[in-house]
């Protein structure tokens, strides 16, 4: 049995609250329609999987689309995990970490906590960073081989994910405001809100995004601060110029703008954490992972979360989140079909022991925790649907976060690092179960790379300006009837000898045609989805005829030697990357 379902809602049903509070309620219907299309596209993409460059990775028939089948009635599973970045613990604290040539010894938990606060650490007199956009600093390295287990004696590579908060990769990020001395923490804001929500708001009305920044981060934010700008001179613009999205005619949004970057906030100047920025921390990746996990694997390859993620090759291993999400979803899918519960999102589960949070003289400080976006207790099974929260000690209290502690029994744990607070929280998502009406999908072997029959896997389709502006957007590209623009299709697994003359890009909508003008054999990988094996790009002029029917547009790329007009079974179409909007 199923319950009819017609539209995906915004996370925590927050959109209506935002538009009302910003006095922009007239834009809500447009946002709702676009958001539904976004989640619907990601859902279809997740169900298709990767039949192009992988074996045993498709289809994901036991992940259902509620827009097509309704929601199941067999119950809801709430999956939660601790948001402190476990990869820092797994790679730097075990005894074998002494074999890391940079360290020569394991790090202490206090050192790891400090590194999570800042992204930096000094070991044996040498300073290391987890991210450095200048390319001048020494990046801390981790073992290259991590499946089936960590190979401590093999090659080492730079820490990933990269980015100004890249290491906070458990679907929760934070930013700290220090006191006037710069040494004591006065407040910290936590977010688990996905960047796609703000990319969609920006597409509808950039002033909505500006209003939320001024409301939740800093009243000093200006609209131009949020523009995506070229980091270097590019074919489509000069360094520092705004990246103009030709599908809207406006500057594109920068998800890591100066007010949503790094782990330190300086009031009136920079910093803050309105939404997630680490590459893997996206809603589309969450949906894709959940669907991938529904495929049942051999017992020997799925006995625990680590063995299963190495077998199924979804997400990042050794995180608290991805392996655990996949393992729980996989067990649920052994008996039921699943789909992420509406409203699909990632949610902060507020600390349950706030009564035990004390100031330096034993005074209560739990009242200084504030859920600023979303709502507690409104999710399945009484779970919280909090999107953003702040813990702030007012200056009038006369002390800082560093002076506080958590009292559990006879133990007092000082709040010297944000990780101490993060370990009191959880992040959660929910999956709705549906009883199968027939046999579940048969078990598959572990995922492996295709050796023969390799086809290009489409992973991102964006205007050329956004490609050169390094936009990480995962929204479906807008293709308005009666327009012609240059787009870039990023794929994995294309024949590197492809030329513009031999390239063949096909669209499911006959009103959309393309002429490839350039083929790039090496293009940027898409964090959170591609497996790091390298990507290629097709630059093309796309024409959308007047009167083209609105709706999602599927696409595919044929290698030069492939036969013409293959069936969907012979060469599947990809969904979720493009859409012709309603007039």
Explain what this protein looks like in three dimensions.
The chain has 583 residues and is of the alpha+beta class. Helix content is 19%, strand content 25%. It has 12 helices and 30 strands. It has a 5-stranded mixed β-sheet, with no helix packed on it. Strands 4, 14, 15 and 21 form a 4-stranded antiparallel β-sheet that branches. Helix 2 (28-48) crosses helix 6, helix 2 (28-48) packs parallel to helix 8 (283-292) and helix 6 packs across helix 7. It is globular and about 75 Å long.
Label this structure with key terms.
alpha+beta; single chain; four-stranded antiparallel beta sheet; 583 residues; five-stranded mixed beta sheet; 12 helices
In a few lines, what is going on in this structure?
The chain is 19% helix and 25% strand. It is built from twelve helices and 30 strands. It starts with a strand and ends with a strand.
**Mean pLDDT over all positions:** 96
Report the portion of residues in β strands: 25-35%
Report the span from N to C terminus.
36 Å
Relative helix content: 10-25%
Shape: globular
Q: What Rg, in angstroms, do the CA atoms define?
A: 24 Å
Which structural category fits the helices and strands? alpha+beta
Q: Which regions have little confidence, pLDDT < 50, spanning 5+ residues?
A: 525-532
Sheet with the most strands, sense and barrel status: 5 strands, mixed
Q: What's the total count of β strands?
A: 30
Number of helices: 12
User: How are the strands of the biggest sheet laid out side by side?
Assistant: 13-9-10-18-17
> Which assembly state applies to the chains in this document?
single chain
């Amino acid at each position: 049995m199923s319950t009819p379902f017609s539209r995906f809602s915004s996370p925590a049903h927050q959109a209506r609250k935002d538009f009302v509070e910003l006095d922009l309620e007239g834009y809500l219907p447009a946002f709702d329609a676009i958001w539904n299309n976004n989640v619907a596209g990601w859902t279809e993409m997740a169900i298709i999987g990767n039949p192009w460059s992988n074996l045993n990775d498709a289809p994901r028939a036991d992940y259902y689309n509620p827009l097509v089948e309704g929601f199941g009635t067999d119950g809801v599973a709430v999956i939660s995990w601790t948001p402190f970045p476990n990869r820092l613990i797994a790679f730097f604290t075990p005894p074998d970490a002494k074999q890391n040539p940079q360290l020569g010894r394991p790090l202490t938990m206090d050192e790891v906590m400090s590194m999570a606060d800042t992204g930096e650490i000094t070991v044996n007199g040498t300073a290391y960073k987890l991210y450095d956009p200048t390319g001048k600093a020494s990046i801390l390295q981790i073992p290259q081989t991590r499946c089936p287990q960590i190979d401590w004696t093999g090659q080492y590579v730079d820490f990933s994910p990269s980015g100004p908060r890249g290491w906070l990769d458990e679907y929760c990020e934070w930013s700290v405001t220090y006191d006037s001395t710069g040494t004591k923490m006065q407040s910290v804001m936590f977010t688990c809100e996905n960047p796609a929500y703000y990319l969609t708001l920006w597409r509808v009305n950039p002033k909505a995004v500006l209003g939320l920044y001024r409301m939740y981060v800093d009243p000093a934010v200006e609209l131009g601060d949020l523009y995506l700008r070229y980091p270097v001179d590019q074919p489509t613009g000069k360094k520092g110029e705004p990246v103009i999205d030709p599908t809207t005619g406006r500057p594109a949004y920068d998800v890591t703008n100066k007010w949503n970057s790094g782990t330190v906030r300086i009031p009136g100047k920079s910093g803050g954490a309105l939404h997630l920025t680490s590459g893997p921390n996206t809603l589309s990746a969450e949906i894709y992972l959940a669907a991938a996990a529904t495929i049942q694997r051999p017992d020997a390859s799925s006995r625990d979360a680590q063995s299963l993620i190495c077998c199924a090759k979804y997400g990042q291993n050794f995180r608290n989140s991805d392996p655990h999400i996949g393992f729980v979803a996989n067990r649920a899918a052994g008996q039921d079909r699943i789909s992420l519960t509406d409203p699909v999102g990632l949610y902060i589960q507020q600390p349950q022991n706030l009564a035990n949070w004390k100031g330096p003289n034993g005074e209560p400080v739990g009242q200084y925790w504030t859920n600023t976006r979303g709502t507690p207790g409104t999710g399945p099974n009484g779970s919280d649907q909090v999107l953003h929260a702040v813990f702030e000690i007012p200056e009038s209290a006369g002390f800082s976060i560093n002076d506080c502690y958590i009292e559990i029994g006879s133990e007092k744990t000082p709040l010297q690092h944000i990780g101490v607070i993060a370990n009191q929280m959880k992040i959660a998502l929910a999956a709705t179960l549906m009883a199968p009406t027939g046999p579940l999908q048969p078990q598959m072997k572990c995922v492996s790379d295709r050796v023969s029959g390799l086809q290009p896997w489409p992973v991102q389709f964006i205007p050329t300006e956004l490609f050169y502006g390094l936009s990480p957007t995962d929204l479906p590209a807008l293709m308005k009837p009666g327009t012609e623009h240059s787009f870039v299709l990023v794929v994995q697994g294309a024949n590197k000898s492809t030329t513009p003359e031999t390239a063949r890009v096909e669209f499911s909508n006959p009103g959309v045609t393309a002429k490839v003008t350039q083929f790039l054999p090496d293009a940027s990988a898409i964090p959170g989805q591609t497996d790091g094996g390298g990507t290629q790009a097709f630059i093309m002029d796309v024409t959308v005829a007047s009167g083209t029917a609105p709706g999602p547009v599927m696409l595919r790329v044929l290698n030069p030697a492939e036969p013409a007009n293959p069936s969907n079974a012979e060469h599947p179409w990809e969904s979720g990357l493009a859409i012709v909007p309603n007039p």
